Amino acid sequence: SRPMLKISNLQPVTREFAFLIDKEKEADKICQVAKSVNKDLITEVIILDIYNGEKIPKKMKSVAIKVTIQPIRETLTDSALEEISSKIINAIERNLSGSLREM
Question: The whole model's pTM is what?
């Protein structure tokens, strides 16, 4: 008999962020860093958009990501989601010298 996959019946939550990072840096790195913040709860990080142009400093690009957070045992409170969000922002600032951009 095959092991049962643990499927949570709790609704996943998505959060979107846009970061300014150095043009030379791989956009995928943002996904890796964001996911590493909480490998249990963050099930997917995808790139929505990469943009450089108007209002973006010359040596930078804007990378928008969508983060899917899947609660395991209980629905996440707003403050728990805020905490995950700020950890993602801090990790990207620290690891990639990125800065959060207003979307």
Answer: 0.88
